[in-house]
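Q: How do we represent a protein-ligand complex in a form that can be generated token by token?
A: Start from the inputs.
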Amino acid sequence: MSKETKNTLSITDNRTGKAYEIPIEHDAIRAIDLRQIKVKPDDFGMLSYDPAYLNTASCKSNITCIDGDKGILRYRGYPIEQLAEKSTFLEVAYLLIYGELPSKDELDYWGQRIMRHTYIHVALAKLMQSFRYDAHPMGMFISSVAAMSTLHREAKYVDDPEIVQKQIWRLLGKLPTVAAFAYRIRIGRPFNYPDSTRGYTGNFIYMLDYMNEQDYEVHPTLARALDILFILHADHEQNCSTSVMRSIGSSRVDPYSALAGAASALYGPLHGGANEAVLRMLVEIGSVSNIPAYIERVKKGEMRLMGFGHRVYKNYDPRASIIKKVAYDVFEITGTNKLIDIAVELERIALHDEYFVSRKLYPNVDFYSGIIYQAMSFPVDMFPVLFAIPRAAGWLAQWVEMVNDPAQRIARPRQLYLGADKRDYTLPQER
Ligand code: CMC
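Then emit the structure tokens for the protein with carboxymethyl coenzyme *A bound:
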């Protein structure tokens, strides 16, 4: 670096005329370095104001890299396209949590430990039975994960690596079972207990579907399609639910309680619920001939094109192009979903329209995933649960990173207090 250029930021406080030099690291400044900027010595010091954390890095992370302008998504350096094509969800979960791809033996052991933990405690199954017949599967999922902390009480020792390891196996093993049980309650059928010989997604589909058929088999193409969808949804760096996982976990609570909170954040329509909105939109459009009129309404600002646009991606979401191909693989088995024709034409028109081009609005991960889930006969209210199962791998990876990061402390943002000044209490009859 030449004499003129230094890796620092010079700030002049025009209230006082004082100059400050603040170090820059990784193109960022530490917000705490602003605290020295004061008008009077007993001032609290300068804060940065950043609602919704639009420009605040809350951690240093080695897990997931996104370059939104270039449409790049990598887990631990591996491009999502390669992982979706060649890897499996369980291998990706290992990669996210431990940082490296497992050896063959490590992968076998990992899969075996997770599948060994697929059974849930009878007390949890009983508790789940008490949900009302029309309970939303995501509500059941969230409550059941929270209840798991009452059954695995050693989980609170978050500094003990062996105990943490076991909770990771348990969570990855049990979440598909909890999800499948929620679904069986939702459709009024008895629980199907896990069959660990069928693989991770194969077992999940089996628990959802099996009745009493002789020679019941899960179609390998459907199991693989779900596995790819799980890979694509496994992590997405500091999104809303992941930030919640880290934030709750920073209080050193057990991972079940933290994960229940993360799943609650995912439940919201602005996060894990967008694929459902896409499906409803395609149904509302109804046919390819209605698309131009619908696009005009979007351009007039009457509504948004659901499944388009992303806070980070200003290019094609790399997950969307992989999902589009998976959709056609699934339709080979399930028969086509007529909504796909509407989706493809909608995408074609939007990608050539000045409104969408100039705003860099491209299809995101949710544009095609709902169509696949619907073709696989999942009810719409299961969609966020199908997002939560794989995202748990990312939540756990980020939680482990946070728990072991010496720079992290309990999450505790500041506020700019703009409320009333001191005033004296008056009795109700005097108001
Ligand atoms: N349809 C039409 N116009 C849009 C859309 C859309 N889907 N998204 C953004 N715009 C327009 C918006 O009106 C604005 O136009 P103008 O500059 O004329 O006011 C411009 O594009 C920028 O929009 P923004 O709201 O500033 O963008 P944002 O980064 O805050 O929002 C988003 C990102 C994902 C919330 C938004 O694109 C959106 O609402 N998309 C539809 C919902 C959706 O598909 N969500 C799934 C996100 S991916 C899954 C996840 O992360 O959980």
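The beta strands are 8-13, 18-23, 64-67, 72-75, 78-79. The pocket of carboxymethyl coenzyme *A is lined by residues 239, 271, 274, 298, 304-311, 359, 361, 364-366 (CB under 6 Å).
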